[in-house]
From TrEMBL:
One of the Pfam families matching this protein, by short name: HisKA
Source organism (scientific name): Candidatus Chloroploca mongolica
InterPro entries: CheY-like_superfamily, GAF-like_dom_sf, HATPase_C_sf, HATPase_dom, His_kinase_dom, HisK_dim/P_dom, HisK_dim/P_sf, PAC
Entry keyword set: Coiled coil, Kinase, Phosphoprotein, Transferase, Two-component regulatory system
UniProt lineage: Bacteria, Bacillati, Chloroflexota, Chloroflexia, Chloroflexales
Region (Disordered): 871-897
Protein name per the record: histidine kinase
Catalytic class of the enzyme: transferase
Record domain PAS: where: 251-296, 495-552
The reaction(s) this protein catalyses: ATP + protein L-histidine = ADP + protein N-phospho-L-histidine
Histidine kinase domain sequence ranges: 645-866
């Protein structure tokens, strides 16, 4: 994103940069200082330097010096690399001196030392030793003062480093420019005992030339850096420089400007340059140029241009005029800046402001926005209607002028909110100008400018006078429904307690072992048999409870069981805490994870004491064994009959309760107030809760009896998930929960029982919604693992979480983590137990991760493909015996005609069915038993018969068979209604001649739809 900098600021910076560049260029062009003769410290006319025999004549020495000066001058013109410059400078010094070795040092101001950058004729060890000379060195101090130094052979002998190299004489001459020490030139000889006078003078002259070369080199580097910094600044600000030369009418621009324009050219004629501008902006650009020449100032404008590639951009300009010596305009120079991003942002802001205005004005809520002086900025149409302002345009008007009756209390609230407070009122009295009172709920809060200062207030409100009136009316009728709700709640609690008691006293024991054979779960029945407490056995090895004979068998069979996955009718002798033993019979199933790794066993333990006694008795008398077997069979039949009777006894009154509730909600008996509707909805919801509890109990009993069968088919996973989420939409909305769905696109279909998968998901989602506080989030996440061919269904919540100590009780039927009398969440504790059973029937697994106060994640892992390998899992076609969803369409069934015979022995059920069907236009005939149904059918010839199954005198199955035997009723639709809803009921009804089958409680709309399908409307 471009750096935010104004054209004026950048133009000032540009002038400063140009001034610096000019200064550096002047420095480079400065003539070299006059050559002066330098004498080393300690040398004078009275004390001349020791000399050696000259090697050349003075004329030859002068020629050599001139050649060296010329070579150094070429360095400046050629702009050679640093290393080449340094080497050339050193070679020139050695050449003019006539000596044979030396080194060139540069002074580093950062680390305050002389650093060797070039050398010739010196050994590697000597170079390494002398590569760095610190500022503190005495010789370095003299050089920094601008004093040259000469060393004789005797002086060098005293220095170990010099002696090791074999140097016999050396001169050190400072390299400087205008008093600034740039470095040091060291030239030495392995032959001469002292530096000749002419050699030193030549070195002094060439040192001045080298100083000029070095300062030129530094200036060039600084110049390049300044150019680079200026270019970087322009690029960052998306700017470039322009210069229009008036005499030639040509425009020159920088590379940065060329980048903005989108061209490789660096100059154009004025007419060609104008062609870059948008056709609508070309005249403006020419007018600005004329205005600048006339008024001698360059106004800034914004233009649209097309780049060479055809891209549309926005630019702006800033500049000034240049004049010749006569005062006439010579050129126009300045900057252009690419402001495309800013213009796009401004246009987006304008669009957003327009959208905001449309949103507020046409919002169905009463919204008003004020500035800091409480003047209207905008108000919605709903606001004008609610506050009886009609077509008044309030924009710009004071709120207190529009409502002169505004109280001081409300004015004080406005001032507090303008200071940063937020005011929320659920019930506020609004005094109208005509003296009437309205009730209002509102929220008043400040809105903020971009600089985080309060710009004014925004007001959200709703006139709730009608609601307050309705609440008063509802309170009058509330008492009538309270007694009905209390009675229903008592009956639900009674039935729930009966079911819980039935489970607590199960006649068999249950336990689970981990991969090491340690007890991880055990029920109270088995604990009572063994005489231990739960704490004493959890985590303990099961082998501690085996007799030696059983232990030997267990050691051999347990690894086989973990691999095979099942164990049937294993005879095991267990040791009680008191040391006594008793025989048991164990059936076990292995629970494995998605990878097939053993997690734990699920074992059912039967106390085999009686069986063993029976075996002993069998050896004595086969007759006694027959009696025992008959008793066992009778007990099994009694259990099934009990479940069937319990289902019938619970479903029969529920049919009336839910039917009546549905009739009331459809207002067949007259309209309801909103409070009445909510009360009846509570009745229907409570009945539905009881019905789901009954279904869970029946499903659980079917699983335990091995009679629950799956209908396996290819299903659409997304459809199942979305349907499950629809079930939870209303309870989530009531708790203000965010219900989210994350779906893996590669998961489309799978092989499973769609109805049971939906039951699994709804149970988990219902728990998540139940235990997540208001404002939280519940997520259904689906992920497929193509490599393992599994699908994970994860239900994630931000709820109360589960303590680690309570994890072992999660999947136990009739058990809740919070089982106290004061618990905050309802439920039977059957849901998770049933979920685990259904998951295992599918050949899958379930796991839980949870932290108290942070939420829980329940993950169900199911096979993806067709091979479920469920060990005895059977399939059956979908049956309609399951409780229908009470979530039906809001549209009532269309009016129909025809005669329906309703056979029902319960008055409440008969009334509900008759009221609902007669309201749809059907003629109703009634009968209270099967015999009466045959008689009434013969007398009236109905078009359709609703046949209850359990009735006195003659049951529904026998009556159906009798009717089908009569040719008059061979094709008349007969719908069987029963409250048993047990496995096989549908088949028995259809075998008797029923056309279709519904289990009680009957959903009225579903029944009406079925009747309409079997008995289409006429006319």
């Amino acid at each position: 994103m471009a750096t935010h900098i104004s054209p004026a600021e950048l133009y000032t910076a540009l002038e400063q940069a140009h001034a610096r560049i000019a200064e550096l260029e002047a420095l480079i062009a400065t003539e070299r200082q006059p050559i002066t003769t330098l004498r080393p410290e300690g040398a004078s006319q009275h004390n001349p330097l020791p000399t050696a025999a000259p090697a050349t004549t003075e004329h030859e020495q002068a020629a050599v010096l001139m050649t060296a000066q010329r070579d150094l001058a070429r360095l400046i013109a050629q702009d050679a690399p640093e290393a080449e410059v340094w080497t050339t400078c050193l070679q020139a010094a050695i050449l003019v001196s006539g000596l044979d070795c030396g080194g060139l040092y540069l002074f580093n101001a950062d680390n305050r030392a002389f650093e060797l950058v070039a050398h010739q004729g010196l050994g590697a060890d000597f170079v390494q030793a002398m590569a760095y000379v610190a500022e503190e060195n005495p010789h370095a101090q003299r050089i920094l003062r601008g004093t040259g130094i000469c060393f004789t052979a005797a002086e060098l002998d005293a220095q170990n480093d010099q002696h090791a190299e074999g140097v016999r004489a050396m001169a050190a001459i400072p390299l400087q420019h205008r008093g600034q020490i740039l470095g040091c030139l060291n030239v030495a000889s392995h032959l001469h005992c002292a530096i000749p006078e002419h050699a030193y003078q030549a070195l002094a002259i060439i040192a001045v030339e080298i100083g000029s070369v070095l300062i030129h080199q530094q200036s060039e580097a600084a110049l390049k850096q300044s150019h680079a910094q200026l270019s970087a600044t322009l690029v960052a600000a998306r700017m470039g420089t322009l210069r229009y030369h008036l005499p030639t009418q040509r425009i020159f621009w920088s590379p940065e400007a060329a980048q903005i324009i989108g061209t490789n050219q660096v100059e154009e004629t004025l007419s060609r340059f104008i062609e870059y501008f948008h056709p609508e902006d070309r005249e403006l650009a020419l007018n600005v140029l004329q205005e600048a020449l006339a008024q001698k100032s360059v106004p800034s404008r914004e233009y649209r241009i097309f780049t060479a590639s055809g891209e549309l951009r926005w630019i702006t300009n800033y500049g000034k005029l240049e004049y010749d010596q006569a005062g006439n305009p010579l050129a126009l120079s300045g900057l252009i800046q690419d402001i495309t991003e800013r213009k796009q942002a401004e246009q987006k802001l304008q669009r957003n402001e327009q959208l905001l205005r449309l949103f507020v004005v046409h919002s169905p809520a009463a919204i008003a926005m004020f500035d800091r002086d409480m003047r209207y900025i905008i108000a919605s149409q709903r606001y004008l209607i609610d506050y009886r302002l009609g077509e008044l345009d309030v924009t710009g008007r004071s709120h207190y002028d529009v409502f002169p009756e505004m109280t001081d209390e409300h004015r004080a609230i406005h001032q507090r909110c303008l200071a940063g407070d937020v005011e929320i009122q659920a019930n506020d009295r609004l005094l109208r100008a005509d003296g009437t009172i309205d009730w209002v709920r509102y929220e008043l809060r400040p809105w903020y400018e971009l600089n985080d200062e309060i710009g004014g207030l925004i007001f959200f409100s709703e006139v709730i006078t009608e609601r307050k009136t309705a609440e008063a009316a509802l309170r009058a009728s509330e008492e009538r429904y309270r007694h009905l709700a209390e009675e229903l709640e008592q009956r639900v609690q009674q039935r729930t307690a009966e079911v819980q008691d039935l489970y607590d006293y199960a006649p068999v024991g249950y336990h689970s072992l981990d991969a090491e054979g340690r007890i991880v779960m055990i029920n109270q029945t088995e604990l009572d048999w063994l005489g231990y407490s739960r704490e004493e056995l959890l985590g303990r090895s099961m082998t501690d409870l085996f007799t030696p004979e059983t232990l030997e068998v267990f050691t051999h069979e347990f690894p086989v069981f973990k691999q095979r996955g099942w164990m049937q009718n294993a005879e095991v002798t267990l040791i009680r805490k008191d040391g006594s033993t008793f025989p048991t019979l164990i059936n076990a199933t292995a629970i494995k994870d998605a990878t097939g790794q053993f997690l734990m066993s699920r074992s059912i333990v039967f106390d085999n004491t009686e069986r063993k006694k029976a075996e002993v008795a069998l050896r004595l008398s086969r007759d006694q064994l027959s009696v025992a077997n008959a008793a066992l069979h009778k007990a099994s039949q009694a259990k099934n009959e009990f479940l069937a009777n319990m289902s019938h006894e619970l479903r029969t009154p529920l049919n009336g309760i839910l039917g009546m509730a549905e009739i009331l909600l459809e207002e067949i008996r007259g309209p309801l107030t909103e409070r009445q509707r909510r009360a009846v909805a509570i009745i229907e919801s409570s009945g539905g809760h009881l019905l789901s509890l009954i279904n869970d109990i029946l499903d659980l009993s079917k699983v335990e009896a091995g009679k629950l069968e799956l209908h396996l088919e290819s299903i659409l996973v997304g459809e199942i998930c979305e349907t499950s989420l629809i079930f939870m939409k209303e309870p989530a909305l009531k708790k203000n929960l965010n219900l989210a769905y994350e779906f893996d696109p590669q998961v489309v279909t799978m092989t499973a029982d769609g109805r049971r998968l939906k039951q699994i998901l709804i149970n988990l989602l219902s728990n998540a919604v139940k235990f997540t506080p208001s404002g939280g989030k519940v997520t259904l996440q689906v992920r497929g693992d193509a490599e393992r061919q599994t699908i994970d269904f994860a239900v994630i919540d931000t709820g109360i979480g589960i303590a680690a100590a309570d994890m072992n009780r999660l999947f136990k039927p009739f058990t809740q983590v919070d089982s106290s009398l004061a618990r905050a969440h309802e439920g039977s504790g059957l849901g998770l137990a049933l979920v685990m059973d259904l998951v295992e029937l599918h050949g899958g697994s379930i796991k839980v991760a949870s932290k108290v106060g942070q939420g829980s994640t329940f993950t169900v892992c199911l096979p993806w493909g067709d091979d479920l390998a469920g060990g005895g899992v059977k399939t059956e076609p979908h049956q309609s015996e399951a409780a229908p969803s009470r979530q039906t369409s809001d549209q009532p069934p269309p009016p129909c005609s025809g005669t329906i015979l309703v056979v029902e022995d319960k008055a409440m059920n008969f009334i509900a069915l008759s009221d609902y069907l007669s309201n749809l236009g059907y003629s109703i005939i009634t009968a209270t038993n099967g015999q009466e149904a045959i008689e009434r059918a013969a007398a009236h010839t109905p078009d359709l018969i609703l046949m209850d199954i359990h009735m006195p005198v003659m049951d529904g199955l026998q009556a159906t068979r009798r009717l089908r035997a009569d040719p008059r009723f061979a094709t008349v639709p007969i719908i069987a209604l029963t409250a048993l809803a047990m496995t096989g009921d549908r088949e028995r009804c259809l075998a008797a001649g029923a056309t279709d089958y519904l289990s009680k409680p009957v959903n009225m709309r579903q029944l009406a739809a079925l009747i309409a399908r079997l008995l289409p409307p006429t006319g």
